[in-house]
Amino acid sequence: MTDLLLKVCFVLSIIIAMEWLAWASHKYIMHGFGWAWHRDHHEPHDGFFEKNDRFAIFGAALSISMFALGSPMIMGEASWGPGTYIGLGVLIYGVIYTLVHDGLVHQRWFRWVPRKGYAKRLVQAHKLHHATIGKEGGVSFGFVFAQRPDVLKEELRIQMRQGVAVVREALGRD
């Protein structure tokens, strides 16, 4: 039982680490040199798919690679190696991302607008992320953990005063 608990904790730690990796990738890659792929995610476009969806291929490749490296065939053992549990954590994070970000926030898979709770906070935080024009400035680069909207609005106001961010519309008070 202890072995199973350790493996579950390890997978959960990978899921949490993936949110940090996704935040850093979103802020420094997607809003940096990867903007050519990410731009259409921030602008109106026709069609179901976006160039931005290409980033999901990297997450899938990471997960598949870890599963392969952790498999008994590669490890030469009868049990799964750490790579398998890393791959599982990346896979679970990818499913959470797909349901929460693409499904809930951007309404790509289902139509539900949360009226309260953390789901509403996630949607509000990501709308504030999309409030800026262009790749400069911005808030809320994570996908699953979101700060309070009032904190994000104040951060955007500071960025506007400093000339770092251009915001699409006025930021009202909660």
Describe the structure.
The chain is mostly helical. It has two domains: about 1-110, no CATH class; about 115-174, no CATH class. It is about 65% helix and about 0% strand. The chain is built from seven helices and no strands. It has helices at about 1-35, 35-40, 55-70, 70-75, 80-105, 115-130, 150-160. Helix 6 (about 115-130) runs parallel beside helix 7 (about 150-160). The radius of gyration is 18 Å and the shape is elongated. It starts with a helix and ends in a 13-residue tail after the last helix.
Relevant terms:
single chain; 174 residues; mainly alpha; 2 domains; 0% strand; elongated
How much strand?
Answer: under 5%
Alpha carbon gap, first and last residue: 47 Å
- Order of SSEs: HHHHHHH
* Rg value: 18 Å
The total number of structural domains is 2
Count of individual helical segments: 7
Low-confidence stretches: none
Content-based structural category: mainly alpha
